[in-house]
Specification:
heterodimer; A: mainly alpha; Fumarate Reductase Cytochrome B subunit; two-stranded antiparallel sheet; 9 helices; B: alpha+beta; Uridine Diphospho-n-acetylenolpyruvylglucosamine Reductase, domain 3; four-stranded antiparallel β-sheet; 12 strands; globular
């Protein structure tokens, strides 16, 4: 147990949980990098199985009714993503650099970034529920055929099965993992704010029993180290050349008609005549 | 403090004869090694059985770490020089009287005979919650028992608290910072010289340490430049009893004046935060101002800005303010005005 958790003693001599063992930070870091190396190797070895451009040409020729640029993310959604990313990086750096030996006064930066992250996620939940297609990012039993098709495609089979709607299956699974880790770290982090001096909450270290605080700290630490691996994976996919079109969409807001047809199922992500999905293209006529 | 027992936990004792041998041992055993100087702080920890090091490196036999030498117009004091030797050294007495006063204010004559200046600046905090072995932040846990609604925290911090509210107990530390001293630190990667101001770290930087010393590193000497030699010094340590006690608040200052105008000043307070605090804003404020009651009063008020007393230590706020006032105007001048 000592490898995963650390224990201390309460004033009454009881053994209490105190922290997650920081060995797990290195384990998460290693897992993230190992995944990166494994995936990158796999992609190099399977490069020959890429779709032939002529296939995509034909798909594009068949759908001249689609706009040349298709909106993937609204300005508000992109703003949320980058605010959340900045706060997440600040949180991870302020949490783990001191453990790695880079010493600085990190606590104030950490809780302030945590508040920004919490506010941005609260905003995202409301925005996604009211203004976006809330269910498009979630995974469920209905996605099993797509998962099966994706696996078979990755294994080199030519499978006609379903393609993703707005978000690829990998995106949706990642979102699920980040929701679990993110909400855990936020809920515990906000609770832990009563242990430090802030101008926001009155300090009350007795709000919970020592043993319960231990669970809060361990949950925060577990979610934190999990986020290290998840963020490594996310950044890796964001900078991969074959996924760059997705990252670019998170910067500019749109994807091309060709990318839309190549990677998405038009029946599951319908754009067509909806003006909200069209982006004016100064170089060519906007397709209707 | 926990009840001191008679028998310490077993450890392997090394008594190197040179700094190089000591560094080899520290490099070999890293954080498992305990550096033993005069032993005053160490024996508390070991006999309380709170710290249980596997290896103890006793520096008592390393001659090159002892003694006071003149160097580059200033002084170099070996880390293993006893406080009594510092107090009695003629150059310290003549040119750096503030250090003599501070060293003489430490503990008792017997302890000063045994305690070293390196140990005095490197000693751990005296917070009794921490020293009782509870799993507080400083001990690697997740709570500060001294900063709870019913904690007994009369001696704890009013400034710079960051989860932990322990204070630095060193008497010589504020005097060394006021003199612009540097700490010579050696490790397996070589030597680095850290300003005394940066040598002490607060909980925001590293909650489990009081100094910038890392496992495997050794404080070998303290260098004091000649810049502030012979200037107007002030040191005062307020404590519950006049011997063998730690400071409730202490102040150390070095001042250069022209007539009654303050030209330059370094001002440091201790026992109000986890590290000795140099009051740079006050130093800037008094520069070019007359050395009088009005300047001292304004500086005193400025010094305590941001103070956050705990349940039992609000008295430290006016105490610190008044000590800063006294450091600036001087006691004698005030008494005769």
């Amino acid at each position: 147990m000592g490898y995963f958790l650390t224990f201390g003693h309460s004033p009454w001599g009881q053994q209490i949980l105190t922290h997650v063992s920081w060995n797990l930070l290195w384990a998460s870091l290693f897992a993230g990098i190992a995944f990166l190396v494994a995936h990158a190797s796999y992609m190099v070895l399977s490069a020959h199985r890429k779709r032939h451009p002529a296939e995509t040409d034909a798909m594009e020729a068949a759908r001249p009714d689609l706009p040349a640029r298709i909106r993937r993310h609204s300005g508000v959604a992109r703003g949320f993503h980058w605010v959340m990313a900045a706060s997440m990086f600040t949180l991870l750096l302020t949490a783990f650099l001191p453990i790695a030996g880079v010493k600085f006064a990190w606590v104030t930066w950490h809780w302030m970034a945590g508040l920004v992250l919490s506010a941005s996620i609260l905003f995202h939940v409301v925005h996604a529920s009211v203004f976006l297609d809330f269910w498009s990012i979630w995974v469920g039993p209905k996605d099993l055929p797509e998962l099966r098709a994706e696996i078979l495609r990755e294994l080199g089979h030519d499978v006609p099965g379903p393609k993703p709607g707005k978000y690829p299956l990998g995106n949706r699974l990642y979102h699920l993992a980040i929701v679990a880790a993110g909400l855990s770290v936020i809920a515990t982090g906000l609770t832990m704010m009563v242990r430090v001096r802030t101008p926001i909450l009155p300090r009350n270290p007795y709000m919970l029993a020592d043993s319960t605080w231990g669970v809060v700290y361990v949950t925060h630490g577990m979610a934190g180290v999990a986020l290290v691996g998840l963020v490594i994976a996310h950044v890796y996919f964001a900078v991969r050349p074959d996924k760059w079109w997705i990252t670019k969409a998170m910067i500019l807001g749109w994807i091309t008609r060709r990318q839309y047809l190549e990677h998405h199922d038009p029946d599951r992500w319908v754009v067509g005549m909806n003006p909200k999905n069209q982006i004016p293209n100064p170089k060519s006529q906007v397709a209707q | 403090m926990a009840v001191i027992r008679d028998v310490m936990p077993a450890f392997e004792l090394f008594q190197p004869a040179s700094t190089a041998d000591a560094l080899d041992l520290l490099d070999r055993y890293g954080s498992d090694a305990w550096i033993f100087a005069g032993g005053l702080d160490s024996f508390d920890w070991l006999k309380d059985r709170i710290k249980r090091p596997r290896y103890v490196v006793d520096l008592g036999g390393v001659a090159e770490l002892k003694g006071v030498r003149e160097r580059d117009g200033g002084l170099e004091i070996g880390a293993m020089t006893t406080l009594t030797e510092v107090v009695r050294h003629p150059v310290v007495k003549q040119r750096y009287a503030i250090l003599m006063e501070a060293a003489e204010a430490a503990a008792s004559p017997q302890i000063r005979n045994q305690g070293t200046i390196g140990g005095n600046v490197s000693q751990d905090t005296r917070c009794w919650y921490y020293r009782s072995g509870w799993s507080c932040y400083r001990a690697g846990g997740n709570v500060c028992y001294a900063d709870t609604p019913d904690a007994i925290n009369r001696e704890h911090a009013i400034l710079g608290a960051d989860r932990c509210v322990a204070v630095n107990p060193s008497d010589t530390a504020p005097a060394l910072i006021a003199l612009g001293a540097s700490m010579v630190v050696r490790g397996s990667k070589g030597e680095r010289v850290v300003s005394a101001e940066d040598f002490f770290v607060g909980p925001g930087i590293d909650i489990t340490r009081m100094t910038a010393l890392q496992p495997g590193e050794l404080l070998t000497a303290i260098r004091i430049p000649g810049d502030w030699a012979g200037s107007k010094f002030y040191f005062e340590k307020v404590r519950d009893r006049q011997v063998w006690d730690f400071a409730l608040v202490s102040v150390a200052s070095a001042m250069v004046t022209t007539g009654e105008t303050i030209q330059n000043m370094r001002l440091v307070v201790n026992a109000v935060a986890a590290r000795p605090l140099r009051l740079v804003n006050v130093e800037q404020f008094v520069k070019g101002k007359p050395r009088n009651e009005a300047t001292a009063a304004a500086a005193g008020d400025m010094a305590i800005e941001g103070a956050q007393p705990l349940r039992f230590n609000a008295y430290k706020v006016p105490l610190m303010r008044n000590l800063v006032k006294r450091a600036i105007r001087g006691v004698e001048e005030w008494a005769t005005s």
